[in-house]
Amino acid sequence: MSAIQDVYRIRTQRSSAVRRWVGLGILALIIACLLRWGLLKSVFITASPDDCRAASGACWAVITSQWKLVLFGTYPFAEIWRPSVATAVLLGAFVIPLIRPSLPALACSWAIALVIATGLFDGRLFGLTYVEPHDWGGLPLTLLLSEAAILFSFPIGLAVALARCSGRVMLRSLALVLVESIRGVPLVSLLFFATLVLPLFLSGFSSFDKLYGAATAIVLFNAAYISEVFRGGLLTVPRGQFDAAKSLGLRWTDMNRLIVLPQAFRACAPSLVNQAVGIVKDTSFLAVLGIFDFMNSAKLALIDVRWRGNFIEVYVVVGLTYFLMCTAVSILGQRLSSRLERPAKVDDAITPVALASIVTAGSQS
Amino acid sequence: MSENAPSVASHEIGDVIIEMRNVEKSYGNYKVLRGINLSVSRGERIVICGPSGSGKSTLIRCLNQLEEHQAGEIIIDGTTVHGGLRGIDGIRREIGMVFQSFNLFPHLTVLENCTLAPTRVRGVSKAEAEATARTILERVHIPEQAQKYPIQLSGGQQQRVAIARSLCMSPKIMLFDEPTSALDPEMVSEVLDVMVELAESGMTMLVVTHEMGFASRVADRVIFMDAGEIVEVAHPTQFFNAPQSLRTKKFLGQVLHTQAG
Ligand SMILES: Nc1ncnc2c1ncn2[C@@H]1O[C@H](COP(=O)(O)OP(=O)(O)OP(=O)(O)O)[C@@H](O)[C@H]1O
Ligand SMILES: [Mg+2]
User: Fold this and answer.
1) Neighbours of ion ligand 2 (CB under 5 A)
2) What's the pLDDT band for B73 if we cut at 50, 70, 90?
3) Worst-scoring range by mean pLDDT, A161-165, A342-346, B90-94, B95-99?
4) B218, B178, B214, B183: which is closest to B200 by C-alpha?
5) pLDDT tens digits, A82-135
6) CB B107 to CB A342 under 8 A?
7) B63, B85, B107, B145: best mutation site toward chain A, by most A Cβ within 10 Å?
8) Is the shortest distance between the CB of B55 and ligand 1 below 6 Å?
């Protein structure tokens, strides 16, 4: 190695060291500021907003003093044990498929949990006092809507995708029209359509609350997108797989369930997880209809003029909660799809040693 | 495999199991099959050859209705098959099919590939299906690969698994569509050997192939197709030594030339 190269090497090493220390310094500073604001100088519990004004840090008291509003929205306070139990049930149903990652386990536990949770919210199923959907709200409602929307939109999306790939022209065009007409409209206008226009046609159902209409809109909207994701997955399955399955005499359902779908799922699993995470966030659109989902309920904490200034704290808490929910969905998605991993051919795998030799070979040239 | 290899011992030929009458098939305006007449007896071994695009694949794919024909009649073991036939699954499970590109199920192990259809379609118990599968994997000389995934096998091994998968359904007829065309030359014979053994066992076989050595050794009849028609049907000895039509001669000239080289 020549002297010039030597000097160059030392200089780049030195400058990269400098950059590293500057970077770490900035990061440490940011963390320190956040800690100071969020923990050290913050006020967690107080009844009077004046204490907050005196402190230089965050005022978490805006949440803690109004936790009922933030967590449960407009749900009657005397009954909040019901949405609390519902939340526990919904979370439990979420954890079961994490332990035992299988689609049937997930579908069953979620369906059961949804019935119980809705029954608790509503009350009549368990002989409790009736609480109108109009009064439901808060974090439990967001969880309920998210799980319901995911549970319904995936099978519908799958059915539409299969229809679009089917040999029957009528079925195929019907699915096409459905997908294009739903996908071509913003979610918000679909929400208004489902809650304002649809009830006019369904006047027979006097108890048809806008919450159900809105949930239907979210399900259909996402089902349209999911069907396209599934279709993309179905298109990756080679025609020979269909030939082989048919030639063995497999029935249509078995061919799809055992041969085609597992391969299609594997191809589109990352995009499906994307969609599931999107659904959780889509539920916050219900605020435009005056439904008190978690986001909207949390904002109730700011109605009181004395707390109005603390919107940053409220949005930080809301944001972190959504982040946790979405991360949980994404972990679940990964758990489920990791079972579909393609078996690797032994000599296909790039070992760390091989990778290192490629990299060094590249840098030497 | 040389052409002088001893031919498979003479065997029983029974009643008619496949009957094609004036079968026509077109894609749009393009006629792929132009009035095919063919009758195959139980236990017969038929080799179909012909230039690319002559309709060989289409012909055998019509037999199990992977393609639907538009005119004429196809009768499989007494049942007339046609597009939209409700019981087509029942016919298909009696007809094994081996493809040029193997078409193994990549997400299932070799054993699962072999047991899937027997358990799902025939309602055989898992244990019984596995026992059968292992016996048949032994017959195609790969019992040790049962737990592997298709992608971990060589082409020749994959094609033998594909044959085993079909055999596990104990079909009455086996269709082969250029089973060795996608294989490296050194793997061709291991697949052909399995097919010869299958022929010796008395299976009714329709084989699309250009392996003329295999044809002369195994076939009861060789069928030459061109432009959607059956041009010549003959016993292999006559087919190779005294072809009747000009088109057959020309084709044989090309094929034998390339296979010798
Ligand atoms: N799905 C299809 N749509 C339109 N044309 C098709 C289709 N499948 C096959 N064909 C045409 O039908 C003709 C016969 O095809 P086929 O696959 O039966 O020929 P082949 O004799 O098997 O040829 P090869 O030796 O190349 O496999 C070809 O000209 C082909 O282009
Ligand atoms: Mg072909």
Assistant:
1) B 57
2) very high
3) A342-346
4) B218
5) 999 999 999 999 988 888 888 888 999 999 999 999 999 999 999 999 998 889
6) yes
7) B107
8) yes
Domains of chain A: 61-364 (1.10.3720.10)
pLDDT of residue A63: 85
CA distance B147 to B108: 9
Please answer whether residues A179 and A228 qualify as being in contact, where contact means their C-beta atoms are separated by less than 8 angstroms. Answer: yes
* Ligand 1 neighbour B56 (Cβ under 6 A): yes
What does the angle CA B157 – CA B162 – CA B164 come to, to the nearest 5 degrees? 95
Three-state DSSP state, B72:
strand
> Which strand (E) or helix (H) includes residue B222?
strand B221-226
Only one residue has tokens 């959504």, namely: A322
Tell me the average pLDDT across B118-129.
95
Whole-number Å distance between alpha carbons of B9 and B2: 17
Lookup: tokens for A290: 């005056």
Nearest CB to B103 within list A244, A249, A251: A244
Give CA–CA dist A92/A117, Å, rounded. 11
Instruction: Pick left, alpha or beta for residue B36 (phi over 0 → left; psi -120 to 50 → alpha; otherwise beta).
Output: beta
Ligand 1 mutation pick, B31, B34, B36, B58, max ligand atoms within 8 A of CB = B58
Amino acid code (one letter) for B109: T
Q: Is the distance from CB of B18 to CB of B38 less than 8 angstroms?
A: yes
Q: Which amino acid is at B112?
A: E
Instruction: Work out the pLDDT band at A341, boundaries 50, 70, 90.
Output: low
Give the CA-trace dihedral at B118, B124, B125, B131, to 10 degrees: -60
pLDDT (mean) for A327-338:
90
Closest CA to B249 of B220, B217, B226, B218: B226
Pick from A109, A111, A114: which is nearest to A97 by CA? Answer: A109
- Which residues lie below 8 Å from residue A363, measured CB to CB, with a gap of 6+? none
What is the identity of the amino acid at A67? Answer: W
Closest residue by Cα to residue A238 from B101, B111, B187, B206: B101
pLDDT of A343? 56
Give the torsion sign (CA, A3, A9, A15, A20).
negative
Residues of A in contact with B175 (CB under 8 A): 247
- Alpha-carbon gap, residue A304 to A319, rounded angstroms: 21
- Distances B185 to A125, A293, B2, B120 between C-alpha atoms, Å: 71, 66, 15, 36
The model's pLDDT over A285-310, given as tens digits with 9 standing for 90+, comes to 999 998 999 999 998 888 888 888 88
For β-strands B173-177 and B95-98, DSSP reports them as: parallel
What distance in angstroms lies between residue A310's CA and the mean position of ligand 2's atoms? 73
* % of chain A beyond a pLDDT of 70: 90
Are the C-beta atoms of residues A139 and A294 closer than 8 Å to each other? Answer: yes
Predicted TM-score (pTM) of the model is 0.83
CA dist A185 and A275 (Å) reads 17
The tens digit of pLDDT for each residue in A44-60 reads 888 787 888 788 888 88
